[in-house]
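Record 1 of the preview.
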Amino acid sequence: MKGTYSIGVDIGGTNTDIGLVRDDGKIIDQANLHTDDYWDAELYVRDMAQKITGLLQKNKVTKIEGIGIGAPNGNYYTGSIDQAPNLNFKGQVKLAEMMKQYIDAKVVVSNDANAAAYGEMIYGGAKDLDHFITFTLGTGVGSGIVIDRKLILGSTSTAGELGHSIIIINGRECGCGRKGCLETYTSARGIRRTTRELIEMSPLYDGILKDIPAERLSAKMVGDAANAGDPIGRQTFENVGYLLGIAMANAVTFSAPQAIFLMGGPVHAGEVLMKPLRKSFEEHLLNIYKGTVDIRVSELADNEVAILGAAALCQM
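->
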């Protein structure tokens, strides 16, 4: 097959998705492992290596640029997963070292949010940018910061945790142990919680979200309701846009990006989110940055960004 190739691996608590990626950003083929089936990291890496080898043989690829792995608590410096809370195998898993026992290739490990940012730079809308930030709205809020086309990792490989910047003093409890983190308000879980709170505070509300059981309510349902004119749905996304706009304006003062990219399910709600977000962003942006920062939606598809981002790590 023509072109150069790399392997992108997205490790989640439930599934591990593996993709063979061509240098133009095309995912040629994919394989999958059920992460939660494994309690032994050695067996898990062995089976992952077998899946990768199978993809290469099936597609007659004899040489790859490397294997990029996006993982919870992935550490670029050590090539390991460090104390990931949602994986069955605990402690430090020396992922890169273990993978090289099976496949002789460059192996790069980083956390999934940083991988997404790097994927945006290599394959997405930031190809021509030197300075940008990404925010991923999902179960939590992930972020990645690129300055001078270099991903900011810091001394511990954990720089860029903007989802855990405190946006409300003594606010909602976060899974990290602190209170008021951005992700407790602007993640999919935060959106559901805000919606339920607004419904409880509105005894006269009789809209389409009222009778949806709390355990079934999703951020997409809230977004759909907002786009249909539902007042609770719209107020929820106005709150999300307002707080996210403040957080983004604060982030600009740190790195002066050319653009901020948004990705993840809630972003697909469209203007019910983007309109209040842009308004809040402009209101809270320091005047010296006015007119210098674009707010954009990621050009990478939600179902591909994790694999593409991981594959892009091979170019670090």
